[in-house]
Amino acid sequence: MRLLHGAGELRPVFRTAHRSAFHLETHDDYMSENESASLAAFRADENTDPGGEWFSGWTDHVSATVARGAAVRRVRIVTEPHTQYTRYLLALSRHNVAAGEEISYLPRHDAEPSDAAADDY
Q1: pTM of the prediction?
Q2: Minimal CA–CA distance to 86: which of 50, 56, 33?
Q3: Which of 4, 26, 78, 88 is the 20 to 30 Å CA partner of 104?
Q4: CA angle 73-77-81, nearest 5°?
Q5: What is the DSSP letter of 82?
Q6: What is the pLDDT of residues 41-100, one digit of tens each?
Q7: Residue 25 DSSP class
Q8: How many angstroms separate the CA atoms of 72 and 70, rounded?
């Protein structure tokens, strides 16, 4: 399996998906540079909608993938109680779901230890 870095590598691979695209997230924090302003605003006020124009590239991509018949699924293994970053992702996920992405959450204590410690894929 090849590790993909950033949208420039990820999106061309997604375009080849015929039935589904799956992503497993195992970390409690990612700190992606493109979300820094959105995350800072959310940290200042957790009632802030973290979505916006900065996120439209991803949601447009998900919408196009789903429109051609491929499911986009993501599972996040999360620590409880949730970190502020996880709360940020929970708030942001409504935009993912509106675009057609299916997101599931698995508490870290319910996950297989080897899955919870694995790298994302």
Answers
A1: 0.87
A2: 50
A3: 4
A4: 130
A5: P
A6: 999 999 999 999 999 999 999 999 999 999 999 999 999 999 999 999 999 999 999 999
A7: E
A8: 7
Task: Find the helix or strand (DSSP H, E) in which 23 lies.
Answer: strand 20-25
Q: What is the pLDDT of residue 95?
A: 98
How would DSSP label each residue in 94-111? HHHHHHTEEEEEEEGGGS
- Of 76, 82, 89, nearest to 50 by C-alpha is 89
DSSP state of 81: S
Separation CA 14–CA 10 (nearest Å): 6
Contacts of 101 (CB under 8 A, 6+ apart): 62, 66, 72, 73, 74
pLDDT category, 121, cuts 50, 70, 90? low
Contact 59, 95 (CB under 8 A): yes
- The least confident of 36-40, 73-77, 80-84, 112-116 is 112-116
- As given in the structure block, the two tokens for residue 40 are 């800072």
DSSP-assigned letter for residue 88: H
